[in-house]
Amino acid sequence: MTLTILTGSANPGLAEAVAQKLGLTLAGLTLERFPDGELHVEIEESVRGKDVYLIQPTSPPVDEHLIELLFLADACRRAGATHITAVVPYFGYARQDRRATGREPVAARLIADVIEVSGLQRLVAIDVHSAALEGFFRIPLEHLSAVPVLVEALRPYASEKSVVVSPDLGAVKLAHRYASMLNLPVAIVHKMRISGEEVRVQRIVGEVEGMSPIIVDDMISTGGTVEAAAKALLAAGCLPRITVSATHALLVGPAMERLDALPMQHLITTDSVSLPEGLTLPTEVVSLAPILARAVKSLHSGATLADLVVYQ
Ligand code: R5P
To answer: Which pLDDT belongs to residue 309?
Structure first.
């Protein structure tokens, strides 16, 4: 069966890099908006009988990119594609996996249902906010991780004076994964979220005084979590040499000013989403193209993904 790779507008650079690694070119398509804002998509070549991979992170603007993904999936299904897999390097809405205060949707669950209805038969995602997301889907979710490649990029900045810091309770397991690969201790910041943009630190568990923190998280959105953690660590006597590693650098709203104001040595991240222009931070971007290309190749040929998939 022929392998076809398609992408929407969310991160064409990454999709092209994946296609190139597989010796392919992206299938042509038209993405246009009617004057009222309605999206219209059209795939320009036959996908009948093909094994199709739609590479599209649901990065900001999340809803636009999600709708593109759903429309492309529906177009492929109606055009007779045999298998349709969504490769969603960053999966938005994963944080809304429960009702935190009541009278709210469980958005992650609803999005999972909509994805299934669109005709997608399998999902590949990287470092989703919570591994429990898998349970929201009846279709298989292949959960891959960028942590091993991020750790290799981090290694030159780590020393025996470093400590891996989880900036909230949700990232504790992630911090332990980094720490065991780097052979470093872990500290945990107890954060309380006040609003979408504002967080407050309650306390720090673990030794940070005189140490260089490596703050790790699945994502940086507005930078509030990293900023609050960094300020608390500095107040607790850590060295003003902070390194941050996060798989998904959304960097929306005040994120860049917040991070710019910190004594940050390096931001290590991936190209799961297109990075904003004008990024002045010392940033190292590790490409996910090799991991995704290997995953697509394995799925297409029916080979194991055991060395790529992460279970938490
Ligand atoms: C939440 O628990 C996530 O893991 C991140 O810590 C959070 O989403 C980052 O958002 P922000 O950068 O806006 O604080």
So the answer is: 86
Atom of ligand 1 nearest to the CA of 170: 2
Query: Does the C-beta of 170 come closer than 6 Å to ligand 1?
Result: yes
- Could you please report the per-residue DSSP string of 125-155? EES-S-GGGGGG-SS-EEEE--HHHHHHHHG
**Secondary structure of residue 290 in the 3-state scheme:** helix
| Ligand 1 pocket residue status of 217, Cβ below 6 Å | yes
Q: Please name the residues in contact with 107: beta carbons below 8 A apart, sequence gap of 6 or more.
A: 93, 96
For atom 13 of ligand 1, which residue has the closest CA? 222
Residues 122/211, Cβ–Cβ less than 8 Å? no
What is the pLDDT confidence band of residue 101, given thresholds at 50, 70 and 90?
confident
Element (H, E) at 13: helix 12-21
> For the chain, what is the mean pLDDT?
95
Q: CA 308 to CA 154: how far, in whole Å?
A: 19
Residues serving a catalytic function are: 191
Query: Which amino acid type is present at position 132?
Result: A
**Which residue reads 């998904």 in tokens?**
248
Is pTM beyond 0.85 here?
yes
Q: Is 196 exposed, middle or buried (0-12, 13-18, 19+ CB in 10 A)?
A: exposed
Counting ligand 1 atoms within 8 A of each CB, the residue from 219, 231, 256, 264 with the most, and so the one to mutate, is 219
**CB burial string 206-244: b at 16+ within 10 A, e below:** bebeebbbbbbbbbbbbbbbbbbbbebbbebebbebbbb
